[in-house]
Write a structure and sequence with these properties.
2 copies of one chain form a homodimer. A 5-stranded parallel beta sheet of chain A has the order 2-1-3-4-5, sandwiched between helices. In chain A, strands 7-6-8-9 form a 4-stranded parallel beta sheet. A two-stranded antiparallel sheet of chain A has the order 10-11. Chain A contains 12 helices and 11 strands. The first copy, chain A, is 45% helix and 15% strand. By secondary structure, the first copy, chain A, is of the alpha/beta class. The longest helix of chain A has 16 residues. In chain A, strand 6, helix 9 and strand 7 form a beta-alpha-beta unit. Chain A folds into 3 domains: 53 residues, 434 Repressor (Amino-terminal Domain) (Orthogonal Bundle), CATH 1.10.260.40; 118 residues, Response regulator (Rossmann fold, 3-Layer(aba) Sandwich); 128 residues, Rossmann fold. At the A-B interface, helix 4, helix 5, strand 2, helix 6 and helix 7 of A face helix 4, helix 5, strand 2, helix 6 and helix 7 of B. Chain B binds a DNA duplex through helix 2 and helix 4.
DNA sequence: TTGTAAGCGTTATCAG
DNA sequence: CTGATAACGCTTACAA
């Protein structure tokens, strides 16, 4: 593999001149520059990023560390991040599991966006103390070099449930996600608060796991109940879709016999029967905003805080 | 940020001894080693991966370059790759778009798995010529340092369609994916060949795009047709799901009035009505095999060729 | 406009 | 068992 040394030799210049030319610095004689660029082309030369990174103390990489590659919302957030990083000439480096910690510790990235509850607060704080700016999307965390932006779960669910109550519904159940999930817990807080403010004393809770399969299982249990709650609010769309599927298989009509709603506005929600009422987050836009923010931080621009991502209630057919 | 120099100084040893200790080499006196490790811990030291990579000419990273983050099958393949790479102490680095080329050219990875039709054959060949081993999953490509493993699209679809014909179906349509997609074209080849071998002269083709939305649109057109094909074979599950949704909304019964089947065996196929008949690929296992293969190549082990990933026909309710 | 040389933080060779 | 030192491939003062 050719190095800059080979290019320099072939062009008959010193290494530094070759470097200047290859980096488009203005201090090289046009003719010399041409010769160098030609030599590089002929040798099929590309600079070794590792060496450059070591010298410049920057990598041009932004890490995105997620807990797994599944899930419809990740793909949207990632796409937004990808677009914005590309615009800013940064590389997107997505990773998961042990690799995330490695890339972070070894400073193979200039900053990172975190969407991985397996990385504990302490770990993140310790990395940030190294000097690596971190943008955390799955929890609220403050500290030196740490920024966070989270969905306004509580506010959005609160608004939605109040709206449903105003339409006359009073018999609610909450189909939860994992009990240690930030998003789940805050959605539940909003749910509870809305009931409380409307003086509704009782509600049921079903314990799901944010998956279609989990929602399906709960749907089956629901069918066995004597007194079925009339409105099942699901902590995310996937749970809702699984739940509705179980009911459909037994011929229970939605929304006539039960109302259902979810959270996330995943693509699929428009392509099921009945179309799913949900709370939508503009994930692509969120990804872009966060990506721009981390770029600004890394390049020491003035920082524009990212607030909650945009959310809205999307009424469709399921309630 | 502390360097190995700081650790060495604090432990009162030379840099090289510190390096030996930190890398667990057997030539360091246990007591000295303890002192060094303690110093490292107290300083909160982690080695700078960039510097290590430059010196060792290895990164420990394997790139996975995909054309976008959406799609249910990626997440499975990625999960398989992640697991296997982690077992082998390699980092997984997923990227897309311009970043993919950058990471490849700048040699920030030791090898890569490619699932991105935007990267042309020539580009891949030129990277491989640099000495970067490449495993290509979305086309058949041969060359120095290039390996590929693709789904046996043709064979599997052929088997499936023959099986359907043997059950008495003869009036087929093919709901395609993008016309430049490798997977789509080979599935079509298998489809055609099966009809041909059974002397079935006619079939229709609907032009889709591998998405639910695309399948849905085609479903709507299908409903307007005077003579509707009795069996619609869809180039992937997402198309099939969209297609079926359009029919369901108009009350067309599947499989009574039309039969439908897909390809991929995505998770969702089990949670719709009717459950989708499909051709399943064990994506997680495939990811593991490919990951192991690239690790073997990078570490110069003897190479075990990865054949086609495992595929099977999964009969459910839609036909 | 070009060249010399130091240095980024490691690893690894060699001598002690 | 430990230490001095060159080298990985590049960028960047500084000198010429």
């Amino acid at each position: 593999m050719p190095t800059i040394k080979d290019v320099a030799k072939k062009a008959g210049v010193s290494i530094s001149t070759a470097s200047y030319a290859l980096n488009n610095l203005p201090n090289v004689h046009p003719e010399t520059k041409q010769r160098i660029l030609l030599a590089a082309k002929e040798l099929n030369y590309y600079p070794n990023g590792i060496a450059r990174n070591l010298k410049t103390q920057r990598t041009g990489n932004i890490g995105v560390f997620i807990y797994g590659f599944a899930g419809p919302i990740f793909s949207d957030v990632l796409e937004g991040i990808r677009q914005k990083l590309q615009e800013n000439h940064f590389n997107i480096v997505v990773s998961s599991g042990k690799s995330s910690s490695n890339l972070l510790q070894e400073r193979q990235v200039d900053g990172a966006i975190i969407f991985d509850s397996e990385l504990t607060d302490e770990i993140l704080i310790s990395y940030a103390n190294y000097g690596l700016p971190l943008y955390v999307l799955d929890r609220i965390l403050t500290g030196n070099n740490i920024y966070s932006s989270v969905i306004d779960n509580e506010g959005l669910v609160y608004r939605f449930i109040r709206m449903m109550i105003s339409r006359g519904h009073r018999d609610f159940a909450y189909l939860s996600g994992p009990s240690d999930a930030f998003n789940n817990n805050h959605r539940y807080d909003g749910f509870i608060q809305a009931l409380k403010d409307e003086k509704i004393e009782n509600h049921q809770v079903f314990h799901g796991d944010f998956t279609i399969g989990g929602g399906y299982r709960i749907g089956q249990e629901y069918l066995k109940m004597e007194k079925r709650p009339q409105f099942v609010y699901c902590a995310n769309d996937e749970s809702a879709i699984g739940f509705m599927q179980a009911l459909r298989e037994k011929g229970v009509k939605i929304p006539e016999e039960v109302k259902v709603a979810g959270f996330d506005n995943i693509y699929l929600g428009e392509y099921i029967t009945p179309k799913l009422t949900t709370i939508g987050i503009d994930h692509v836009k969120w990804g872009k905003e966060v990506a721009q923010a981390i770029v600004d931080i890394v390049t020491k621009q003035k920082i524009k805080e990212v607030g909650h991502p945009e959310g809205s209630i999307i009424m469709r057919e399921s309630c």
